[in-house]
Design goal:
This is NADPH-dependent ferric siderophore reductase. It comes from Aquamicrobium lusatiense. By secondary structure, this protein is of the alpha+beta class. It has 3 domains: 93 residues, 2-Layer Sandwich (TATA-Binding Protein), CATH 3.30.310.50; 127 residues, Elongation Factor Tu (Ef-tu), domain 3; 123 residues, Rossmann fold, CATH 3.40.50.80. 20% of the residues lie in helices and 35% in strands. The protein is built from 7 helices and 19 strands. Strand 4 and strand 5 form a beta hairpin. The two termini are 27 Å apart.
Length: 372
């Protein structure tokens, strides 16, 4: 792999035990591992890393296809070292590309350029900033926004310590991170659109701050700063026939992916919304059937109609490449994923089903997004 490179020697007792630990952790990211004696190589399509035990030290090398990816590999290694040593002090003297970074390379400060409502409960906020080329991809559709703490005296932005670990200037007033889909991006204009589902007033849903992203969008003003981190998350796979399914939270990603499909693509779109007033115009190829499901007064996350509709779709059995994508509440996510795997028998590479939220729980309580 040719790209960005870094290495470090870390004073670390029992480094063979750490090598075993980091190997198990990197497998969670789909890394292929090669182990021998007290050494380990780990690699994916986007990065490689190696770990070699020396006397009371650990030699670490990493290479990645981009500076952003190299930073993520370094941060992962540093966090694992921190957990391994516990309360003991440690230092990682990184050398090579990115060793002089003082802020995460995937972090940017944007400002609100415009605010408009797409539907009564879907607000589109356009952010303006510099160098948005990294978001102009369908392989990673999401980012994290930094919703500032209401009592923070000034905006709280992340920095990097010498070990490559993210630090915040005021831990007590640390921003809350929320995941959103990049609905549109215009690299030349330096703008991107984010769509926010405006839930009921945050003060009636368990108190202020229970829906920080929606609450911020409700009061967003032109010129207001917004920190973002990304991109990340799964995206679109090339296929002949598609199924897209989701509720309001999955609709921005569905809309963006439909707009990127070639004219010959075929498939089904199923979207659950509150009522007919929440339907949006979707620019899909002519070979798509679009179906809207209305809750008509039922609370979001309380019906089975999205999963039931997915189970009613006829999937091609004629050799065409099929890809299914769904994003919704946790119970629907679980039902749809089980059906696609056990009944339709789609391979893992041929579907992505994500839980964007869980009824009655905050993102922290639900553990963030769940996927395959």
């Amino acid at each position: 792999m040719t790209g960005y490179f870094t290495e470090a020697r870390i004073e670390l007792g029992n480094s063979p035990a750490f090598i075993s630990r980091i190997g198990d952790h990197l497998k969670l990211y789909g890394a292929e591992l090669s182990r021998w004696d007290n050494a380990l190589d780990a690699s994916t399509e986007l990065w490689t890393s190696s770990f070699e035990s020396e006397t009371d030290r650990l030699l670490v090398r990493a290479e990645a296809s981009s500076l952003d990816m190299l930073y993520l590999v370094k941060m992962t290694i540093a966090e694992q070292v921190m957990q391994f040593v516990g309360d003991e002090a440690f230092r990682i003297a990184w050398t090579g590309d990115g060793s002089d970074l003082t802020v995460p390379p995937n972090f940017s400060v944007m400002e609100v350029a415009s605010v408009r409502d797409v539907t009564p409960h879907m607000r589109r906020i356009t952010l303006r900033g510099d160098d948005l080329s990294r978001f102009d991809t369908l392989e990673a559709l999401h980012l994290r926004i930094l919703v500032q703490h209401p009592e923070a005296p000034t905006p709280q932005w992340p920095t990097l310590d010498p070990n490559g670990i993210v630090r915040w200037p005021d831990g007590e007033h640390r921003p809350r991170l929320r995941v959103y889909t990049v609905r549109n991006v215009d690299v030349a204009a330096g703008t991107m659109d984010l769509d926010f589902v405006l839930h009921g007033d945050a003060h009636t849903e368990g108190g202020p701050g229970t829906a920080p992203g929606a609450d911020w969008a409700r009061h967003a003003a032109i010129g207001q700063p917004m920190g973002i981190i990304g991109p990340g998350g799964g995206g679109l796979k090339e296929a002949d026939w598609y199924l897209f399914a989701g509720d309001e939270t999955g609709l921005p990603a569905i809309g963006r992916m439909l707009e990127a499909l070639p004219p010959q693509a075929r498939g089904h779109v199923i979207v659950e919304v509150a009522d007919a007033g929440e339907e949006q115009a979707l620019a899909a190829p002519q070979g798509f059937e679009i179906r809207w499901l209305h809750r008509n007064g039922a609370e979001a996350g309380t019906t089975t109609q999205l999963a039931d509709a997915v189970k009613g779709v006829s999937f091609p059995r004629d050799g065409r490449e099929v890809y299914a994508w769904a994003a919704c509440e946790f119970d629907a996510f679980r039902a749809i994923r089980t059906y696609l795997r056990k009944e339709v028998r789609l391979a893992r590479a041929d579907h992505l089903v994500v839980s964007y939220w869980r009824r009655g729980r905050s993102e922290e309580e639900s553990g963030g997004h769940h996927d395959d």
